[in-house]
Amino acid sequence: MKYFYLSCFLSINMYCAGQEAMTFESCLDRAMRENLMIKSAELAERNALTQYRASYGMALPNLTADGESRSSRGKEIDNDTNLFVRDDLIWYEGTLNSYFTIFNGFTTINTIKRTKRELESNRSQLQNIRNDVTIELAQRFITILFLQEAIAANKEQISTSTKQLEMAELKFSQGAIPESEVFKIRAQKGTEEVALLNNENALAINTVALKQLMQMPLDQEITLLTPEVNLDKLVVDDRDPNEIVNQAVTIHPAYQKSIWDQKVAKSELALSRSARWPMLNMRLMYRSNYQADNDEIRFEDQLDDNTSKQVRFYLTIPIFNRFQTNADVKARKFQYKQAQVFTQIEYNRLSQQVVQAIQDARTARKKNEASAAAFDFTQRSLSADALKFEMGRINMTEFNTTKMLYNNAQAELIRSKYELLFNNALVRFYMGDTFRLE
Fold first, then answer.
1. Is residue 421 scored above 90 in pLDDT?
2. Three-class DSSP labels, 187-221
3. Smallest Cα–Cα separation from 371: which of 413, 421, 419?
4. pLDDT in tens, 322-362
5. Rounded to 5, what percent of the chain is helix, strand, coil?
6. What sign does the dihedral 297-300-302-304 (CA atoms) show?
7. What is the domain class of 22-60+104-277+318-430 according to CATH?
8. How far apart are CA 190 and CA 165, in angstroms?
9. Can you tell me the distance from the alpha carbon of 101 to that of 287, in angstroms, rounded to the nearest whole number?
10. How far is CA 306 from CA 75, 114, 289, in A?
């Protein structure tokens, strides 16, 4: 027998060792490192950073080198005499060219500004995705904890109903109650089993979603640790929610992204206007050559004699391009105005979210207090009616009514507790604090 207990103890330890106990903080840390949406946004941010750094190259001159080797027979121009000859010629030439933009209608400056603003927009988008993943992770985490408690309550209810069914069947066999009372208990037990099944299915779905947010293998077993519920001063005070909406919205990364997108659109408008300005470019060139079959002049002397140094300026003045510039400027103006409108839309949307979060948190607090009182009352009523039912003072219908009220009050108490936990953390998160379930 002692070997049996030892094997059971070892099996339990091995099972617990195979599970990973995770707090919300550890889940969030893994999600920030492994989530695919975050990784994609990080790559986009790095690409924008590369484009921004590369845009400074537009302010620098470029440098190219060309080389040419030519071997000819028959009639050809002699590079030394500049006359046609019919001798075999072997000729080499090298050229260095450098182009520098002196003025291009502020295109370079506006391009650097645009890429900088695009970088900031991508950074805001990255933070916005991190925030979305954080909130979804918290929702899944809270839902799983709620379902685990709900499942435990379902099993307790089913266990109670099973005992009542056994007692009812015994009374029916003795002729103390009609068979309809037995059917009512069986129906109640069946309803509770269906509720258990639904909660177990929901638990499996949310567990899969939570693991996918963390990019965790689906077959890996995890145990979520339940945090404590503490009220936040911001939630429980009586201040007007509108006082803190502006602060919460202006620091929200989604709103920040809309601001940067608006600035990007403004840079695009400035770039389109650059086409109306003249362009001035400068070219620096150094060229030399030598003729390989010319033995009369040394190689060094040929390079010196054939050296050509040039400085050229190119001025391009736009006169008419079939109204393409005008149409492009108008289109960019509309895009800029759309960006301004979208910024206001985003402000309104986020304002509603913040106000809703504050109201939900306050409602959840009151609901939790009311649910606790209701649960305490139904729990006492159930204990009293259970004794009355055993003594035959009430029938099965009356007892089932009391039991259903107790089940509903218990489920509502569990739900309100986790709603308070989530909404309380969400308000703090909107105000710039770290998302903590505590």
1. no
2. HHHHHHHHHHHHHHHHHHHHHHHHHHHCCCCCCCC
3. 413
4. 999 999 999 999 999 999 999 999 999 999 999 888 888 88
5. 70, 15, 20
6. negative
7. mainly alpha
8. 11
9. 21
10. 21, 46, 6
